[in-house]
Design goal:
Layout (H helix, E strand, L loop, with lengths): L3 H13 L8 E3 L9 E3 L3 H14 L7 H15 L5 H21 L4 H16 L3 H21 L7 H12 L8 H14 L4 H13 L3 H13 L6 H22 L22
Antiparallel strand pairs: 1-2
Helix pairs in contact: 1-5, 1-6, 1-7, 2-3, 3-4, 3-5, 4-5, 5-6, 6-7, 7-8, 8-9, 9-10, 9-11, 10-11
């Protein structure tokens, strides 16, 4: 099986997640007056915030919100790390904080969302055994978020679950129908957000439904960048690249084969 499971986890977790706030710089809500701030694009800032949380959180065992903010720091910092061992260490600490948040408030969505996200990111830099175990944790935690607060973090759980069903092999639980259902739900919750539309475009492209993929690409390219500026710029670049790839496939008699938009399958072979 090579590294199928860690690969599919990485494939959807890196592009999809965004914390509830769209600001680049955030302040943690610690019990003490001095708030911890960080810039998600600055590794030094994130590293400093991580160290402060490591120092502060053990002294505040009941601080749920700060554990979410600490997990947020881990999410962003992990994207700046190239050393796998270091990334696993940082993500493991984030997972521990998310687990503590879940224990403190099991009926709040935030801890569950971070637990699923960070578990998947750690699986990407781990072996196949960790990947196999992680896929079930991701699905369970996203389903829990939907049960508790389906609109939490602008529908991120539907987005993640849709990608899960789209990218997990059918013999391990994947489903095209459920993928489309969940991705469409995410788009309906946040119609002016690029991420769910890009995810739908990628899904349709893999299924050779290029007309539908192109429709979603145009939505991505037309959306404003005000609320989601950070992710919107990235997603629009990806949408343009996908648009070029589709154009190349359609120009070839073989690679350009277009399946009917009404054709349904269950995670069948897709476009290369």
């Amino acid at each position: 099986m090579k590294k199928i499971i860690p690969y599919f986890i990485a494939a959807f977790l890196f592009p999809f997640f965004h914390p509830a706030s769209a600001e680049d710089t955030k302040a943690a809500t610690l019990s003490n007056p001095a708030a911890i701030t960080f810039n998600k694009e600055d590794p030094a800032s994130l590293k400093q915030a991580f160290g402060l949380y490591q120092k502060e959180l053990p002294q505040r065992p009941a601080d749920y919100e700060s554990r979410l903010q600490a997990a947020d720091v881990v999410y962003y910092w992990s994207h700046h790390l190239s050393d796998k061992a270091e990334k696993r260490r940082i993500l493991s600490q984030g997972i521990a904080w998310a687990e503590e948040a879940v224990a403190l408030k099991p009926n709040e969505a935030g801890g569950h969302l971070f637990l699923g996200i960070l578990t998947g990111l750690r699986a990407e830099v781990s072996g196949i055994i960790t990947g196999l175990k992680s896929k079930d944790v991701i699905k369970r935690e996203m389903e829990k978020v939907i049960e508790l607060d389906p609109n939490y973090s602008d529908g991120d759980a539907y987005l993640a679950l849709g990608q899960w069903y789209a990218l997990v092999p059918f013999f391990l639980g994947g489903s095209d129908a459920k993928a489309k259902e969940n991705l469409s739900k995410a788009a309906s919750i946040s119609p002016n957000r690029t991420m769910p539309h890009l995810a739908l475009a990628e899904f349709y492209s893999r299924k050779l439904q290029y007309n539908l993929a192109q429709q979603e690409i145009e939505i991505v390219l037309s959306l404003p960048e005000d609320k989601y500026a950070f992710e919107s710029k990235r997603d629009k670049a990806k949408a343009l690249e996908l648009k070029r790839k589709i154009a190349g496939r359609l120009s070839s008699p073989v690679r350009g084969y277009q399946r009917s938009d009404n054709t349904a399958s269950s995670n069948s072979p897709t476009a290369p």
